[in-house]
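Notebook entry, structure prediction.
Reason for the run: the old model in the group folder had no record of what sequence produced it. Starting over properly, with the input documented here first.
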Amino acid sequence: MLTVLSQHTSDTNRDRAYADLRRRFATWDEVADAPLPALARAIRRGGLGPTKAVRIRAMLRGIRDSGVPLDEHAFTAVPDQDLWDTLVALPGVGPKTAACVLLFSLDRPYFPVDTHVHRVAIRLGLVPPRSDAVATQAAFQDSVSDDQMYPLHMNLIRHGREVCTAQRPRCSECVLRDLCPRIGVTSSR
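New structure, fully documented this time:
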């Protein structure tokens, strides 16, 4: 649920919304069965409460309907590929959200691609220039070793937020500038 709550908000507001949700509802089954207005109120500090409430409830019901119990051990025995297939089949869950759940919540070797990772991968020539996020995720999933997925993901995000920014990349400060095929492509760099 943290992944859904983190969409379009800060980590602080995500954490507040999650704490409020857990205080209001004792179990995930209660969240799945909650009226949407009550659920939206519980997560309102994370922003977009009504939209996120619909998604969260639908996801939890989808998981439960697939035969997986809604508890902290729900996915521990499910093989990686089966779990991936279950997650991406849920309403509102795409590859990025599924990979985030697998990597961050379940410590499984999956590589999430957000806007920062995607931008850096294209600029560094790690994927073709017209690759979408799904293709980029597949490329990283196939080429990055399991033990490097988390650190590489985190480093690419940090690099994309702090140095290789969308509007004004700070190429002169980039530790990867010698490897970057885009240096010198535009006059603003």
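Summary: The longest helix spans residues 49-65.
The old model has been moved to the deprecated folder.
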